[in-house]
Amino acid sequence: MISVLRTTWPLLLGILLLMVGNGMQGTLLGIRGGIEGIPTLQMSIVMSGYYGGFLLGSLTVPDLIKNVGHVRVFAALGSLVSAALILFAVEPHWLGWTALRFLIGFCFCGVYVTAESWLNAGSTNENRGQSLSAYMIVQLLGIVVAQALLNVGDPGGYLLFIIPSVLVSLAFTPILLSAQPAPQFETIKRMSFRDLYRASPLGCVGIFLMGGVFSALAGMSSVWGAQIGLSVAQISLFVAAIYAGGLVLQYPIGWISDRYDRRKLVLILSAIGGLAALIVIAAQPGTVGLIITGAIMGGVANPIYALLLAYTNDYLEQSDMASASAGLLFIYGIGSMGGPIITGWLMGVIGPDGYWVYMGVLLALLTAYAGWRATQRRALTPDQQGSFAIITPNATPFAVEAVLDEAQSDNPPSQQAAAPG
Prior knowledge:
InterPro entries: MFS, MFS_dom, MFS_trans_sf, MFS_YcaD-like
Distance between the termini: 39 Å
Radius of gyration: 20 Å
Shape: globular
Protein name: MFS transporter
Structural class: mainly alpha
Organism: Paracoccus nototheniae
Helix content: over 70%
Number of strands: 0
Transmembrane segments: 40-61, 73-90, 102-120, 132-150, 156-178, 199-220, 232-253, 265-283, 289-311, 323-343, 355-372
Domain Major facilitator superfamily (MFS) profile: 199-421
Low-confidence stretches: 415-421
């Protein structure tokens, strides 16, 4: 790992700063929206804008990179992000914020694609797995650190918008000044949805549902916190707990998944998440209880996402993994766009509990569907499964392809597992 950090530290440092900036603006907007009196439904549209921009970016940025090159795209998108972060404080109106969130989602998708292809190309077969794991960990750490910075200024002022803009601007310095050449780049085409569903119905349905869960959990957390009257410190702790839970539980859940039927593990984790949401609604716990619940929700949502990707790839030939990953992430993006909006609507109809009701219903649906699918196909044995890989919902198809390819190389599934059953 030391050798990996020695060669990739400029990129990892840049990604850390980027994620701190991105993590700050996501939480800050929900808090500032409450201060400005913007209704919950409008704020949910604002939060959904990021996921719409990210989805569009996944479709268009690869061609843009092929036409003008990594460095130009990287620098241009980074400049746009830095400017957009400042503009949030100029005129706090939900329509303008939605447009800016859409722009930031689009730009961050391009930044991730560029950074991930650079990291993949600069790694060797011996250290690629460690490099990509370090990259995913740094992403989660950056968002956790971002929550602490929210407490250094007044969310009703300008400072907390300036800090992420500066951090994003600084993030590109170590990356662009590194000596690493730009990699060769190829656009990844999506597998048809029919073929993808035929290979793994649970993968397709589960990824769609988890898109809704994670975008609501992360995107609407600060809006919900502001609505129930939590302080900035309490909201930042709750959001930090979501990502810290995902970071801590990835490893033990991944270890179990390599030795256990992944469908049943998805069922158990989604049931735990649904039960946690139900307990919050019924018990209305205090701040400590909410933080623990946030850690539990993040601790199941992040690993379920990675589990579904790994499970789908257990039924694919290695040559199909790239196109399948692109297709699954497109499905995830569609689910993500609706998550904040539906959650915001429910919060407007039934109050703050709508935040938990929405996630609880989706997790209950995933629990039921995973249980049904477990009766429709014979379980794989551990030697028929590929290895679990740490993958965050922020990852683009290029990182997902590289991570899963590395995992499958470490523990390739048998030909019997590769054929749909």
